[in-house]
Design the sequence.
């Protein structure tokens, strides 16, 4: 859910060690690692929601260089 994703983001932003662990994840393991972390933290996040969030964030990052 959107609330689950927002809760996960807040937890990652508040925990530098967790943020570093996820940042250092192998690209092929990033989504599984995030989903596992979300489950461990009690955040309701689906794989589709995560992929959508990644795509939206990537698009916003790219667009900041265009405009």
Sequence:
């Amino acid at each position: 859910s959107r609330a689950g994703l927002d809760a996960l983001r807040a937890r990652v932003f508040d925990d530098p060690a967790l943020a570093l662990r996820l940042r250092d994840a192998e690209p092929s393991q990033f989504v599984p690692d995030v989903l596992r972390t979300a489950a461990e933290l009690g955040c309701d996040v689906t794989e589709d929601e995560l992929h959508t969030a990644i795509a939206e964030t990537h698009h916003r990052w790219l667009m900041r260089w265009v405009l």
Notes: The helical segments are 2-14, 16-23, 30-41, 47-66. The chain has a mean pLDDT of 93. The radius of gyration is 12 Å.
